[in-house]
Amino acid sequence: MEVTRKNFSSVLPEVEKAINEADFLCVDTEFSGLHASSSFHISSLDTPEERYHKLRKGSSDFLVFQVGLCTFCYNEEDKKYEAKPFNFYVFPKPYSRAAPDCRFLCQSSSIDFLASQGFDFNKVFKEGIPFITSTQESELRDLMEERHKQYKQFSSPAFVTPDSGAEAVTTKGPINVPEEHKDFIEGICKSVEEFLEKDGEENLSLPPCNGFVRKLIYQTVRQRFQSGVHLGAKTDEKKQRYIQVTRIKTEDEMKMKEQEKQSAELAELEEAVGFTKVIRLISQSGKLMVGHNMFMDLVHLLNRFCSQLPENYQEFKAMAKCVFPKILDTKLMANTAPCKDLLPSSVLGDLLNHTSCTPFKPPEIVIPENFPQYKLDDSNLHEAAYDAYITGICFTAMSNFLGGLQNPPLPNVLPDATIIKPFTNKLFLMRISDIPYLDLAGDDVLPSRDHVFHVTFPKEWKAPDLYQLFSPFGNVYITWLDDVSAFVSLYKKDQSATVMSTLCKRDTRYKIMTYELFKNGLPDKESRKRPHSAESTEEEEPKKKKPLNVDAPVFVSRSRSITPPMPEENENKEEEPDSTSEQSSEQKLFEVPAW
User: Fold this and answer.
1) Which CATH class is domain 136-268?
2) Among 24, 257, 263, 415, which residue's CB has the most CB atoms within a 10 Å radius?
3) CATH superfamily, with its number, for domain 2-132+275-431
4) Separation of alpha carbons 478 and 488, rounded Å
5) 153 vs 167 pLDDT, higher one
6) What pTM did the predictor assign?
């Protein structure tokens, strides 16, 4: 079901009902971009904390254009799931001068990709559902309540000026009107006077003007007309602000007018909260929220609809767990044995195709008539609601497959089943070779990296030079940091102890230290004492305590492990891993205890 600003209010009760009835929910998002800088990169040696900081820094300035929500409710009698997909277009339209005026980034490649998929950008910008974070909502409510208190304190029984906070000003002394505005203000006062003298129209709309002039109008009219009028700020079709003068006859009428104004302000704020209400409903339900490769989705959902992402990694984990108590990533399920052994690819579209066949057992899923009747093909990929829908299909298919391995077999596995718990509150980490997931509910897996070494070298060095340098220790995997530095990982981890004693004795132009020393910012004593050649001393020598530059351009392998090619076959630094090594590496990486 497509949901925009036009039908959001009427559809929201149906969304709430679907969430409350659901056994689990699936979400997906579409963004205005992925990485804020061309130098942004993720590394196979990132820790979960480092990956979070990279996403927070490199992705939080992008905007969410579309959010897909699909609820799944299991019918015990029919043994079927009922799916209700909602496709929300969202855009943070400011509702008043006091509300946040959002700035955001766009990435041309991301926009081009969405356009190629038929994405409707006009619908986003023109009909997108507004939203503000929960933090911003609290601040605006406090500001509004304070302003309402001021109105009660300073306004007379027959006169009030309920404009925005900056313009609602009361004064008792003479009004100092600048010379260039005197004629205009005098004309306004004359129009108000004529309006009050004549019977007929109840309202008088003054010409649009800027905030400063509106403030002068409020102050001057208040002083000259002690009773009988009520002023209120309005916005015309061209988004221009103007003042409307209303004839007031009694004190009760004035109070009623003020109550109407305050009610309208509250309604405007409720509209501004917008899509954040849906996130709040999901959070309050406590239902399992399922996504595919959802680390970035989670970061954006929290940052845009809840509160600014914390700098502290542990605070982020606590925040995520508080807002969404139960999360499951189907990318992690697909990359974990025993599912992994039967799935050649965990890309969402491929995963749908693979889990639709034996030995997987997708349940029958029906969609109510008032919702889009999706066909399971590629025509709707990257529509957020469709992606959320097929994520749910993949989740149920893999869950039922795991259930079939039990003794006795479980034909239909629901989200609260014991075999699902190992995947709960864990996020898949792309391209990290030795850490299977980010654990939102506990301590992360932090393996030993004693077999990893940081190397700095002359700019003219290529991959074959590093392969040759480490050839006594077997095959290696190179993680490039920039043109003059890289991490080198040994496949034969038992050779790690001899690397420093062997390589640091040579009189060469390179510098080497252990991974641990580099991460701790401590120079290795042996490498610090090692002499450098004259030709590299002036320009090539790195600073002794140079930290890792997370924004540096880098080659990032798309696989988890490599078998290094022969040096003469590769002169480019961007090496691709060997697929067979990748499989054996992942087999160990995602192995979990038997069900």
Assistant:
1) alpha beta
2) 24
3) Ribonuclease H-like superfamily/Ribonuclease H (3.30.420.10)
4) 5
5) 153
6) 0.77
